Amino acid sequence: MKKLLLSLILSFFSYVGFSQYAVMGEIFYDNTTTGVANLPYTLSVIDNGTVLYSSSGTTAINGSYFDSIFISSPPSQYQLLLTFVDCDTTLDSTFIWTNPGSFYYQMPSAYYCASSTGTGCNVNFTTTVTDDTLVTHVISDTSFSVYWNLPNGATATGSSVTYTLTNYNSSYYACAMVSNTTCTDTICNYFAAGVQPTSIAGSVSINNMPPQNAMVYLIEADSTSAGTILVAVDSTVTTQGSYLFSNVTPGDYYVKATLLSTDADYSNYLPSYYAASAIGLGQLYWSNADVVTATANNTVYASFNLVQGTNAGGPGFIGGLISQGANKTYLEGDPINGALVILLDDNGTPVAYTTSNANGEFEFSNLALGTYTVYTEVTGIPTTPGTVTLTSENNSTDLVRVEINSIFVDTYMDNPSGITEVENTPFKIYPNPVTTELKLIPSKEDINQTATVRIFNINGSLVDQQKLKLNDQNLFDVSNYNQGSYLMTVETPEHSYTLKFVK
Q: If DSSP codes are grouped into helix, strand and coil, which group holds residue 386?
């Protein structure tokens, strides 16, 4: 039987007008210095399944061979395909993905040619790939002793083996050394597996101009039986407004950007999410953002402008504390550092933003008198905002309280005397802000009560009225509502509640 030792070196040279691809290697009988001559091979350059260039040859003296391909205008990314006939007259091949540039590739000793006599070792194995990375190799004839060399660097014994690939690739090889009382042989096969990575790229702008310094976050949207979980998986600083996330696992993502404190416009533009807007404007809230779907071996682009704040200025002040609510990780009541707080005017227009300090404190100063919405943005969970009205008699408050729980954010006033506060009710509504459908959740005491629900716009006009039986599935279609703030009143035989939401 036969053993083939193959080493492969690929070199890439860039010149004006052409490029050179070179392949060289040596083939020897096992445990000898005698080369195996005249084994034909072909080296091809492939782009999107089309063979652009190819060259064929055979091994030279003592089993050493060299070949090269000269081409012009190479593709930006290509496959090199080496195909050859081994000592068993079996056609073997390997794909190699690469990009232009200096490149070195060493193929491990994978093929063997031994001069041992005997018959019966001409067996092969099958390969099954499940969920892109779970690989199983099987030799159906169990009369052989089998020793496996696997592409993840591991070894194994037995007629079958299963393992998981953890790196990105498209083509792998595995080898099985088989033996019985009369012969030995090594079989090596190539197989396709692995999740092909993708890229997410784009630009972040302020008024269609690149910012000086901005940070972009990549947030993975992972669907589970409990719902969609959003987790920040990567971040990068922009270069002249542009960003790139490479080697991204295919899936659904949100993209969020914020100016760094070193940017001159830091206080004027709010952290924003990518949205597929006709005017290229991002969104303040994750619930209104658009998902970026990354597909294998592809680049997806997501560009957007940050939302601008419009603080007219004045004598007003709004401040408060942000603390931990019910959560399995942190103690209830602990201050939360770095929470993002957004301030909007009575029409839902962004005014300013800030983040809480190490003591959980936040503040907005130099505000015009009027009614404001205090909204704490936590990616992945709904927020119930709070409403504060500043008047000439009461132009300052530091009594806003925000609790961040594991599944929702609640806002209320510690002492609402002199301050309008409409969110401190046992009822909950979410998502808030809302895009298409609003869900009303009553208190336990009000379940199964008959209630009249009215929705008013910011001008006090009635836009919807319903009489219904309260349960945990009361839904309201607001898809046709104009953007802005709304009040919802809920009247039961015993109670009357008012809540606020933003469209």
A: strand
The amino acid occupying position 37 is A
Whether the per-residue pLDDT at 138 is higher than 90: the answer is yes
Average model confidence (pLDDT) across the chain: 77
**Cα distance between the two ends of the chain:** 75
Per the listing, tokens 């990314």 go with: 77
- What SS3 state is found at 486? strand
Provide DSSP, 295-312: -TT-EEE--EEPEEP---
Sorted by where each starts, the structural domains of the chain and their CATH numbers stand as 9-192 (2.60.40.10), 198-308 (2.60.40.10), 316-413 (2.60.40.10), 428-502 (2.60.40.1930)
Q: How far apart are CA 101 and CA 378, in angstroms?
A: 43
CB atoms within 10 A of CB 492: 16
Q: Which amino acid is at 405?
A: N
Beta-strand relationship, 299-301 and 198-205: parallel
- Phi then psi for 228, rounded to 5 degrees? -90, 125
Handedness of CA 219, 220, 223, 226 (dihedral sign): negative
Q: Which two tokens stand for residue 454?
A: 């009215």
Q: Is the dihedral of CA 105, 18, 53, 75 positive or negative?
A: positive
pTM above 0.85, yes or no: no
